[in-house]
Amino acid sequence: MPPALAIHGGAGTIPALGLTETEAAAYHAGLRTALRAGWAVLAGGGAALDAVTEAVKALEDDPLFNAGHGAVFTTAETLEMDAAIMRGSDHAAGAVAGICGPRHPVEAARAIMERSGHVLMAGAGAEAFLRGAGLEFMPPEYFATAWRREALRRELARLASGAEDLRSDADRHGTVGAVARDATGTLAAATSTGGYTAKRPGRIGDAPIIGAGTYADNASCAISTTGTGEIFIRFTAAAEIAARIRLAGQSLERAAGDVIAELATHGGDGGLVSLSATGAPVLVFNSAGMYRGFVAEDGALHTAIHREPYRQG
Ligand code: ASP
Questions:
Q1: 62: pLDDT strictly greater than 90
Q2: Atom 4 of ligand 1, nearest CA residue
Q3: Residues 175, 199: contact at Cβ < 8 Å?
Q4: Which partner from 81, 172, 246, 309 sits 20 to 30 angstroms from 162, CA to CA?
Q5: What CATH fold (topology level) applies to the domain 4-68+82-92+168-312?
Q6: Which residues are catalytic?
Q7: How far is Cα of residue 67 from the mean position of the Cα atoms in its chain?
């Protein structure tokens, strides 16, 4: 089975003209770093679960992406991060919601999967468990970045004035995620996010909801989504795609493309990266762009932001 890897760094109305070549190059470089981190695992014969963990950790460390360092703020100027991870061979899954502490929220999700006996933990109880589990913790200042604080300030001012929302989605939200298939044919998915700017404290998105923003099942597909979390939850987006493959015999391409198009009709903008037991990664979105990338069978890295041809690196 040829290994495969795809990642995303968030979807939305990324302004094509507002992004300078230097800025675009920085996003491409961040995506390539994450692809290399995940691919090193797979090329060495490692597990899909480790590959998605490493790829997402790299994106969490990059302040350009809304996860870990660089996450967006709530209305209370706090940071509340969500993440999930899942393995397709046995449906093992772990997720965490509303935390600020672990340097890598994806590792927090994985510790919950492997060591808590639970699937989803939230808030202070989750943080206490993760401290006890020995995860690397960072102070809130580590996650906070000036441009995300400025984005919150602008959004709070806009909400107070009642003005129309003219922001780009890149300003407002994001999310990072990865899907991988290893040499044994096992699939895995992981997603990590700060949610969206000026979300209410306590709000939880689709990323940590198994079957909504994150899902992996060897018999159908692995999926990591980004976009309007509430809509992805209400339509159980990832599980819906898996069900169409399993029960209706649809291809991943068709099921993922149809579901993303249907979500758009309900106000759900965004996209996803996905993999099935065979074949190349499927990356789809209904928004203007999605930071994304995949590794081709020959090991070449492909990254893109809008609908332009992929850059190879
Ligand atoms: N899906 C994420 C959430 O709702 C946000 C995003 O991907 O932009 O928390």
A1: yes
A2: 229
A3: no
A4: 81
A5: Glutamine Phosphoribosylpyrophosphate, subunit 1, domain 1 (3.60.20)
A6: 175
A7: 8
